[in-house]
């Protein structure tokens, strides 16, 4: 039997798998062994039911609003549409802690809605904690993302089919049935599972807006086990359960995602024939107005912080900003390097070694990382390296490492396809010219990969910059990121300072996301 | 008769100006270099492009104010003619009723049309399970069943191999004679239609450069030199 040639990317993948496995093993070993899933049965049942119900409802509402918005945007042209589409395209990087702030600022006890009602003479009180707050925040974060993805799908309907629909005299209903619905149906299963997964694993939103320990997702339960109860074994069991559930969901995602081939026949934006239907005009106006009223105040709430920026200009802010930028830069570099190595290994095994199964297995690793609970991994790694590293510095090491691993799936999706494309286009030519190693990297791969690499770096840095995850474990006077500072200000009810911090975080994340988007759409 | 008189269309980088007549029941082939304006001419006839000025009439009726669905024109494109989620029979039936609520007689007509294009036994298949030539035959069947007297074919067989392309052109010729429809077809290789087309038009830079019998146009193409020489 021919020995498989080991690639640098193989070693990288093994290292990632070993790191994750070591984290889990150390967590289980340090636990007292008394806690099992059965012993926390009623608690676990409550956590699971809540996790599934809130994720299911969030998914339904996000898909409903997102698809309605996408259809309305596909049919209508209006001033400011381009700006709106840019906003929709960058909502993926809105930090969850900023979304928490936005929900409290608009719908909280003293939020805009409550104040407006009071000015009208209403004397009751509003409580946003629990399902309402969680659902609003999840829909705010996910519906624009759904709208953007489905709108892109709708725009892939070939120009010829629109002309045929015009020529055959399709009604609005027939256009939906024969053109829109097939395009939506291709995206729906994958989107539904992705949104469900994101909401199922939700942490910051549920922690801040859940309203008490009775409302916890598995991710929050793991955090509480580690931070509050110091029950490492419980954290490990909960983490393994979450991994199992997420892997099943992720595998389903891998199987069902499909998209019809993109049409390349567009000469310009198509004028949809159903745009003239007055009933659809009314429906679209209602949808766009609702979307504007729902998303607008949440997005604008952060802008209120503009006036409070002078109040937060102190050393705390500068320190937190520098820490956040450093962690984001290291996490982004790590995610891109790992993605490059794994992508090259997948390409090597798929084409040069003709081992498609091994390549497919490697290809799954970045996606599988989405299922790993960062708290459990961080705690396990913390316990593992604690004997050798100064405890005050552990957070600074683990934050970029875990953030980088968390961002790897996104970086991989940008980089790996271009590596494969470089091979398909120039692989045989390179072989025939005897181009290998650095020469090949410089002449063949680098020109094709540099833009997606830069784009992936900007996106992953944006995701890491706004992340409020494991900083919740390590955060304190000695280690503060901007999202942690925002969380502290929210906890102290200093909303004006929180809004200013939210504005800074959002601005940096949006700028990075814009850089990423422009690079990814630029021509080679 | 289809009459096109001084129909002018302008873009920042391209201007087209067409004048042409096509007799009833003929097969008119439209040849010319890529980017020369063949598709623009066909799309104007079908109603997807609107000229700034000029007249477009069929049997004396002005077509310009009519939307594509009300013109006496059915169209077949090079690609993406079929809806992938519908069966072959349903794709053909769209030419009769976009609602797909067919009477028994209409269903029979659909099957007969599939029979005419040699695909009777494929009625339940999805387009994804068929070859490129078979898919174009389904599109042709839909255009014919619509009962519209003008069939516009926009490079419908360019992606097929030469033999299959010639077979398809013969099928088009047979069916248009049987049903007495006028066919306007843009092509890449004028030789393919030389023995079936009654009329051929050479379009260069958005204008009718030569109009006449296929033999006349083909010889003009070769006389013009390699820049206008068709490719196979």
Structure at a glance:
By secondary structure, chain A is an all-alpha fold. Chain A is about 75% helix and about 0% strand.
Description:
The complex is a heterodimer of chains A (524) and B (232). In chain A, 76% of the residues lie in helices and 0% in strands. Chain A is mostly helical and 524 residues long. Chain A has 2 domains: 9-35 and 313-524, MetI-like (MetI-like fold, Orthogonal Bundle); 40-304, MetI-like (MetI-like fold, Orthogonal Bundle), CATH 1.10.3720.10. Chain A is globular, with a radius of gyration of 24 Å. Chain B has 232 residues and is of the alpha/beta class. Chain B is 30% helix and 25% strand. Chain B contains 6 helices and 10 strands, in the order βββαβββαααβαβββα. Chain B has helices at residues 38-46, 88-93, 104-116, 132-145, 162-179, 214-223; strands at 2-11, 14-22, 27-31, 53-58, 61-62, 73-76, 150-154, 182-186, 199-204, 207-212. In chain B, the strands form 2 sheets. Chain B has a 6-stranded mixed sheet, sandwiched between helices. The longest helix of chain B has 18 residues, at 162-179. Chain B is globular. Chain A binds chain B through residues 158-161, 163-164, 166-171, 174, 178-179, 182, 185, 260, 263, 265, and chain B through 43, 46-48, 67-71, 73-75, 77-81, 83-86, 94-95, 98-99, 146. Chain B: This is ATP-binding cassette domain-containing protein. Chain B: Residues 2-230 form the ABC transporter domain.
Q: What order do the helices and strands come in, and which of them pair?
A:
The complex is a heterodimer of chains A (524) and B (232).
Chain A: H1 8-30, H2 41-75, H3 81-90, H4 96-107, H5 112-119, H6 131-154, H7 159-168, H8 172-200, H9 204-209, H10 218-227, H11 232-256, H12 278-301, H13 309-312, H14 315-352, H15 356-368, H16 374-385, H17 391-433, H18 437-465, H19 471-474, H20 482-491, H21 495-521
Helix pairs in contact in A: 1-11, 1-14, 1-16, 2-6, 2-8, 2-12, 3-6, 4-6, 4-12, 4-21, 6-8, 8-11, 10-11, 10-16, 14-15, 14-17, 14-18, 14-20, 15-17, 16-17, 17-18, 18-21, 20-21
Chain B: E1 2-11, E2 14-22, E3 27-31, H1 38-46, E4 53-58, E5 61-62, E6 73-76, H2 88-93, H3 104-116, H4 132-145, E7 150-154, H5 162-179, E8 182-186, E9 199-204, E10 207-212, H6 214-223
Parallel strand pairs in B: 3-8, 3-9, 6-7, 7-8
Antiparallel strand pairs in B: 1-2, 1-4, 4-5, 9-10
């Amino acid at each position: 039997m021919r020995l498989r040639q080991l690639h640098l990317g193989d070693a990288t993948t093994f290292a990632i798998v070993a790191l994750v496995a070591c984290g889990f093993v150390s967590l289980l070993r340090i636990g007292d062994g008394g806690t099992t899933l059965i012993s926390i049965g009623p608690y676990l049942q409550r956590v699971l039911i809540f996790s599934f119900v809130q994720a299911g409802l969030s998914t339904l509402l996000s898909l409903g609003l997102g698809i309605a918005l996408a259809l309305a945007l596909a049919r209508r042209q209006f001033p400011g549409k381009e700006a709106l589409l840019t906003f929709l395209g960058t909502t993926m990087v809105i930090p969850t802690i900023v979304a928490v702030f936005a929900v409290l600022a608009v719908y909280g006890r003293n939020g805009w809605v409550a104040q407006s009602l009071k000015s009208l003479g209403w004397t009751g009180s509003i409580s946003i904690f629990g399902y309402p707050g969680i659902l609003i925040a999840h829909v705010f974060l996910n519906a624009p993302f759904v709208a953007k993805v489905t709108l892109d799908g709708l725009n892939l309907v070939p120009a010829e089919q629109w002309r045929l629909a015009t020529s055959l005299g399709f009604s609005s209903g027939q256009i939906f049935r024969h053109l829109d619905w097939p395009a939506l149906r291709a995206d729906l299963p994958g989107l539904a599972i992705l949104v469900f997964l994101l909401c199922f694993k939700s942490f910051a939103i549920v922690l801040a807006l859940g309203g008490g320990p009775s409302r916890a997702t598995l991710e929050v339960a793991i955090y509480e086990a580690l931070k509050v109860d110091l029950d490492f074994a419980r954290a490990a069991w909960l983490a393994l359960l979450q991994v199992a559930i997420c892997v099943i969901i992720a595998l389903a995602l891998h199987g069902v995602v499909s998209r019809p081939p993109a049409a390349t026949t567009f000469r310009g934006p198509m004028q949809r024939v159903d745009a003239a239907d007055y009933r659809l005009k009314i429906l679209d106006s209602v949808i766009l107005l609702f979307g504007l009223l729902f998303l607008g105040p949440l997005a604008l709430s952060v802008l209120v912080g503009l006036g409070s920026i002078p109040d937060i200009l102190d050393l705390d802010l500068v320190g937190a900003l520098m820490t956040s930028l450093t962690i984001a830069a290291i996490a982004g570099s790590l995610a891109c390097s790992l993605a490059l190595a794994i992508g090259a290994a997948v390409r090597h095994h798929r084409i040069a070694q003709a081992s498609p199964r091994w390549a497919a297995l490697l290809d799954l690793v970045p996606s599988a990382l989405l299922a790993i609970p960062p708290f459990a991994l961080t705690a396990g790694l913390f316990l593992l390296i604690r004997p050798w590293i100064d405890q005050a510095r552990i957070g600074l090491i683990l934050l970029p490492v875990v953030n980088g691993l968390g961002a790897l799936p996104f970086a991989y999706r940008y980089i790996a396809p271009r590596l494969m494309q470089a091979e398909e286009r120039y692989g045989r030519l390179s072989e025939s010219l005897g181009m290998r190693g650095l020469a090949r990297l410089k002449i063949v791969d680098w020109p094709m990969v540099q833009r997606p690499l830069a784009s992936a770096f900007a996106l992953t840095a944006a995701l890491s910059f706004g992340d409020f995850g494991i900083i919740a474990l390590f955060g304190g006077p000695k280690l503060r990121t901007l999202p942690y500072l925002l969380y502290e200000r929210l906890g102290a009810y200093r909303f004006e300072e929180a809004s200013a911090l939210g504005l800074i975080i959002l601005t940096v994340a949006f700028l990075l996301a814009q850089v990423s988007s422009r690079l990814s759409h630029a021509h080679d | 008769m289809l009459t096109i008189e001084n129909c002018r269309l302008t873009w920042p980088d391209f201007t087209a100006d067409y004048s042409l007549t096509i007799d009833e029941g003929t097969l008119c082939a439209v040849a010319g270099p890529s980017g020369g304006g063949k598709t623009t001419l066909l799309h104007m006839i079908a109603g997807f492009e609107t000229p700034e000025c000029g007249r477009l009439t069929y049997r004396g009726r002005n077509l310009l104010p009519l939307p594509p669905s009300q013109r006496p024109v059915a169209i077949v494109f090079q690609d993406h003619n079929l809806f992938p989620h519908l069966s072959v029979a349903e794709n053909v039936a769209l030419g009769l009723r976009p609602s797909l609520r067919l009477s028994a007689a209409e269903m029979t007509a659909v099957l007969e049309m599939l029979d005419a294009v040699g695909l009777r036994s494929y009625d339940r298949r999805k387009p994804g399970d068929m070859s490129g030539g078979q898919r174009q035959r389904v599109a042709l069947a839909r255009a014919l069943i619509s009962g519209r007297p003008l069939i516009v074919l926009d490079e419908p067989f360019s992606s097929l191999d030469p033999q299959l392309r010639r077979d398809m052109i013969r099928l088009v010729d047979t069916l248009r004679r049987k049903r007495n429809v006028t066919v306007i077809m843009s092509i890449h290789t004028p030789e393919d239609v030389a023995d079936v087309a009654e009329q051929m038009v050479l379009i260069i830079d958005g204008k009718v450069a030569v109009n006449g019998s296929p033999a006349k146009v083909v010889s003009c193409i070769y006389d013009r030199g390699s820049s206008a020489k068709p490719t196979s």
